[in-house]
Amino acid sequence: MHEEILGQYNWWLVVLSIAVSILSSYTALLLVRRMMQTEGAVRWKWLLIGSLTFGVGIWSMHFVAMLAYKMDMVVTYKAWGVTLSVIAAIFSSFLAFYLISRKERRWFHHILGSVLIGLSIVSMHYIGMDAMEMGMRIEYDPLWVALSIGIALAASFAALQLFTISANVKREEADYTNLKWWGSSLGMGAAISGMHYTGMYSASFHPMEEEKISSAVPVIDPTLLGLCIAFGVMATIGFLIKLIAFDTKMESTTDRLHLANQMYKSIVESANDAVITSDASGRVLSWNRAAERIFGHRKEEMYGKSLRKLTPGPYEEGDLSKMVQVIGRTVELEGLHKAGHTFPVELSLAKIDDHGKVFYIGIIRDITERKEAHARIQELVFKDDLTQLPNRRALYEYLFESMQKEKSDASSAVMFLDLDRFKHVNDVYGHRIGDLLLSETAERMRGCLDEEDLLVRQSGDEFVVVLPEPSEGEARRKAESIMKAMALPFLIDDREIYMSVSIGISLFPKDGHDSELILKHADTAMYQAKQSGGNQYVFFTNQISAMISRKVQLEAGLRKAVERGEIEVHYQPQIKVSTGDVIGFEALVRWRHPHLGMISPAEFIPIAEETKLIIPLGELVLREACVQFQKWVDAGYKVERIAVNLSSVQFRQPSFLKVVERVMEETGMAPRHLEFELTESIVQDSETAIPVMHELKRRGFTLSLDDFGTGYSSLSYLKDFPLDTLKIDKSFIQTINENYKERAVVDAIISIAAKLDLSVIAEGVETLEQLEYLQGVGCEEYQGYYFSPPLSSEKVWTLLKKCALSQ
Ligand code: C2E
Ligand code: CA
Ligand code: CA
After folding, report:
1. Rounded-to-integer distance, Cα 701 and Cα 202, Å
2. Most buried by CB count within 10 Å: which residue of 176, 177, 294, 754?
């Protein structure tokens, strides 16, 4: 037995060897885990690299550790021994890793795995030791050898235990700082290092005499060599770790793509909308379930077929060149079902340019239901309930659209129709009959029009007709035929009702460039037709427009006229036929307009009535007339009466009687001198008129009926009214000497008046002949230009003085 050589440990290299063992375990385990996460042939790649790393790792650890153990001699290695030791380590770790990475792992796989790992470490160590040539015999202490093997087995078991736990962690959650992970690497490192150093402890080195130390062998500093190997291994390990990280990332990207693709497919398949992809020429590449449902074509039937199959020909929309225009937008088109019917669809189209290869993705929605719902709403919103005609909203929509087009050659005519005195029908027969009359009217009008003409119920008894591209003659013809149709009596509930209509017509673009103006002008023309007595049609003209704008001007001016003192009252004398004496005056209002001069009441009274300005205006006239009358009386003139005209608007005013009372009080006027001139429009509303008339009579006023003979009212009702005087309208007087019919009317009025105990006054007497005739038939009073026109108050003073002098 030779003397034992004891080596010295270089602690730096010891630490380094341990570090190498831990790091290579770490890397090997990382590779194995990577392998467990992959599928197919790549698994073997990872397994191989993992076991290579582990085997080389153990070997480098061993090598560095041997270098760390300094014995004063040269050590060389037997090539086959080294190779064998490495191969043994690699092979058994390969088997071990294979076992523990199996999907259906059992406990014995685990045990077998750790045995194999342990074996690879142990075999590496002892075969490696045997491969050393250093002129020394190594003797082993069996107990320590056993212990070293035990350490290798136990530590690798523990390490694998930890490894399987950490390897089970999901990829996303696992990271390189995972403690269990490091634990298993440390365990593995401990298995290798612990085994090695225990193994070294079990060995004793004894020199062999026959072997001389060859000084010819170049000696490399073992520390340097150790460092080189350790760092080389660690660099390799670092590279491997990076490789794994890169591969993991790559794989997760492809995974994500795969996943995204999978998701896309399931979304597309479960989508409610047809999702169709096509190539640049419009051949179908994909066709989802919804597309099958919506268009009726099966997937197999559509692949490679043209998209044209989906649109009803010869529509251009199916044309791809056209389709390109809708990219990025949503458009409504007609779709063609396999069964042959068409239906409305909504298409959103996207273009995909994959390196010059063009694809289209179309999302197509069947909007039949939406369209139907929309149509139902349209019907509710745009239809008139009573007549089933389109309503005003529909009209505006239509006009707006058709005139918006701004086609220079486009033209249209708008007719505004208004039933004459429809209110009367409603008042007399009630609303039910009124409604029936309106429906029948709608039918008759529709019957006079062509299909492309639009007939609308504007409101109440107003209708509008739009004739697309008519000539003036056509508009005229249609207006006439409507008037003719309306002239036939309406038979409603066994009642015969006569109706007429006033029509205003304006032409686009001659009479206006937008729908609002055209409609307004038609309305204006209709108003003119009404003003001229109704039952006629009137084309809009600029004169009408001028008239209307004058009306608007007057209306605006009238409001201020009352405050600004532009209103005057003139007085026309009333004469006793038998004596020629002035017995009274009729107060007649005058408006001295600052720009337009004197304006006739015939023009502004209707405006004042429309705007209710007649109420303050009438009160002003009444007060002025009373004040004036009192002045005459106070001056000692014997004037019997002052007559004041009343508008129906004034008369219907609930405060009317109070106003009269107040004016009487304020002016000190005695009611018996005041005569109110009522028009037929006042007395027609007999229910409200009669009590007020009685009240006026009770208070001592006198009442006369103005313009008698012109109205529609019959003579028979005269007896019901508490009247004092009938005023024969000037139209009868003026033709009295030419026309025997007029004479007959005047005669009749005078004799009826006599029977009803009413006095009679004739107005508008312009000639002596007229006066003489009235004298002959026993008319008591008259007024007219023959004696005097209406006079300003100053002129009345002159007249009164003259009359007083002549008396
Ligand atoms: P009216 O009540 O019938 O008044 C008579 C109209 O005949 C007056 O016209 C008068 O100037 C005109 N006249 C008098 N003599 C002759 C004649 O010999 N020949 C002709 N051709 N005409 C004659 P005026 O003043 O223009 O008044 C027109 C109408 O305006 C009045 O008709 C009346 O209905 C209304 N009016 C005038 N003043 C008032 C008023 O203060 N209140 C109300 N509510 N209406 C008034
Ligand atoms: Ca009058
Ligand atoms: Ca009159």
Report:
1. 151
2. 294
